Amino acid sequence: MAKSSILFVLIFMTVQFSKAQEVIPLYSDSIPGAKPTPSSYVENTETRTNGTLSVTKVSIPTLTVFEAPKNIATGTAIIICPGGGYGALAFSHEGTDVAKRFNAIGVTAFVLKYRLPSDQIMVDKTYALLQDAQKAIYLVRKDAKKYGIKSNKVGIMGFSAGGHFASTLASHYSDLKIANPEKIDLRPSFAVLVYPVISFEESVHTGTMKNLLGPNPSDSLKKYFSANENVNKKTPPMYFVHAKDDKTVPVANSELMHQALLAAKIPSNLMYYEKGGHGFGLINKTSDIDWFNLMAGWLKVQKFKVKGDF
């Protein structure tokens, strides 16, 4: 990215940060399948030592809206799902910071603060997250006109466990877990998965799997929640970013899904970093390559409008 472009993005992000963002509750009434929230289960946001925000104990899921400026808005939208091993949400560097980058290329972004799997607040934690994912895309498409977006240009993005969350929606959008009287299409138009957890059968991130499914899940559940095992001809196109030296979530996760997509003749791109480990968010300090710009170029090739010369 040229220095002038970087300066524009930084100024743009500073302006956007000063604006109050609209926050939409996923459920206007009671949450289906929820237990009464114990008084000890209180949502908490803390600033970590690296300056990023971490959110835990989410019981009321929301979408934070980052509308693209009208003069550059393209009609494309994306739902962003932060990671955190299904135990927390890395809400700033894998959420709001990313939303501002999307705004700078004319894409309206919705940062999803999804519930974290917990027997304390959920009757069945296994499918509660898929419920939140389906509800998020339902609301975005239902209100597409309000936000100036095109309902057939709504993607989903996830980091780490958020990548697993996003890939689960991309795989099981038709396994209805919400009321959908309007029969709104819940299939994401595309997906962007950054160092994602994909497989619960191979190269497993055990913490993510245990938090979602418990210590000894059945083989059928592990297969259901392994997106690479559920690719079909309607699975949306996907873009992957992964460092080869990621010891937390092995790169094999992205590779398994990428290969499954290519075998099904679905557009897929896997962008490798040689180094960078896990959790680098927008900036891999080991490289000068800006994966976000490359991803934006891929979106343009896939006919999803973005603003900029990529």
Summarize the structure.
By secondary structure, the protein is α/β, with parallel strands linked by helices.
Radius of gyration: 18 Å
Task: Determine the mean pLDDT.
Answer: 93
Cα-to-Cα separation, first versus last residue: 9 Å
* Strand arrangement in the largest pleated sheet: 1-4-7-5-8-9-10-11
Strand/helix succession: HEEEEEEHEHEHEHHEHEH
- Structural class determined from secondary elements: alpha/beta
Helical content (DSSP H or I, runs of 4+) = 25-40%
Shape: globular
The count of β-strands is 11
The major sheet is characterized as: 8 strands, mixed
Number of helices, counting only DSSP H or I runs of 4 residues or more: 8
Beta-strand fraction estimate: 15-25%
Low-confidence stretches: 1-18
Secondary structure topology:
Layout lengths: L2 H15 L4 E4 L18 E4 L5 E4 L5 E5 L10 E5 L7 E2 L1 H13 L3 E6 L11 H18 L11 E6 L1 H12 L18 E4 L11 H8 L5 H6 L13 E6 L8 H12 L4 E6 L17 H11 L9
Parallel strand pairs: 5-7, 5-8, 8-9, 9-10, 10-11
Antiparallel strand pairs: 1-4, 2-3, 3-6, 4-7
